[in-house]
Structures are given as C-alpha cells and as structure tokens.
C-alpha cells in the first residue's frame, strides 16, 4: 500500500462521469421547469374558477332580485356570462380568458335549490 497510490484502476473515465453528471443535472432542471409550469397553470385555472363562481353568484343575486329575460348575457369586467332558463333550470355559462365554465341552477318557488358545475 503505497502512499497516494490506488491499487484498483478505474474502468470508467472522466468523460463518462462528466456526461452522466451533465445528464443528471439536465434532468433535474427539466423537472424543476415542468413543476414550475404546472404550478403556474394550476394557479391561473384556480383564479379563473373563482372569478367564474363570483360572476355566477353576483348574477344570481341580481337575477333573484330583478326580473331578467329567459335568456341573455351580462358583461362583467373579467368576462361574459350568458344564461338561459328552461322551466325551473337556469343554465349559466361564464367565459373568462378563452375558458368556459358551465353552471346549472335549479329553482323551485324562486328559491335556489341546487348548484351543479361542469
């Protein structure tokens, strides 16, 4: 056992080790970038969903208080809402930034009974 000498010669080279290190680091970078993209996409979809629900609730507050036609549209500052009433079912569509959210409301004796989202 000599001082500073290795008895086993390495079979791999520095080139192979550096290629594997670069490959590992690039895979890690791609994972971080994909995770960041997914988080921002989830955030924007969540914001749009809450905006659509707020638009729907604002419309329903006015719809029950005022008399609207059986179908029509209402413009808000974040998007457009269209509605159509068929019997006791009110179908609502909210358009926000090229996304469409659909809601259905059931009314019996002018009281809101149930809310469904598609």
Explain what you see.
With 118 residues, this protein is of the alpha+beta class. The chain has one helix spanning 14-65; strands at residues 71-75, 80-86, 89-96, 99-108, 111-117. A 5-stranded antiparallel β-sheet has the order 1-2-3-4-5, covered by helices on one side. The model has no long low-confidence stretch (mean pLDDT 85).
Short structural description:
With 118 residues, the protein is an alpha+beta fold.
Features:
118 residues; 5-stranded antiparallel β-sheet; 1 helix; 5 strands
What is the strand and helix layout of this fold?
Layout: H1 14-65, E1 71-75, E2 80-86, E3 89-96, E4 99-108, E5 111-117
Antiparallel strand pairs: 1-2, 2-3, 3-4, 4-5
Q: Could you name the ranges where pLDDT drops below 50 across 5 or more consecutive residues?
A: none
Query: In total, how many beta strands?
Result: 5
Average pLDDT number: 85
Helix fraction, binned, reads: 40-55%
Strand order of the largest sheet: 1-2-3-4-5
SSE sequence, one letter per element: HEEEEE
Gyration radius, in Å: 29 Å
CA-based shape: rod-shaped
Sketch the major β-sheet. 5 strands, antiparallel
């Amino acid at each position: 056992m000599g001082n500073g000498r290795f008895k086993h010669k390495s079979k791999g080279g520095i080139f192979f080790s550096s290629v594997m290190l670069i490959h590992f680091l690039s895979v890690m970078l791609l994972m971080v970038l994909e995770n960041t993209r997914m988080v921002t996409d989830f955030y924007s979809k969540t914001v749009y969903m809450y905006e659509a629900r707020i638009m729907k609730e604002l419309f329903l507050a006015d719809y029950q208080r005022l008399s609207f036609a059986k179908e029509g549209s209402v413009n808000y500052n974040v998007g457009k809402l269209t509605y159509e009433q068929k019997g006791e079912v009110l179908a609502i569509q909210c358009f926000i930034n090229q996304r469409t959210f659909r809601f259905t409301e059931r009314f019996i004796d002018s009281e809101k009974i149930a809310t469904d989202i598609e």
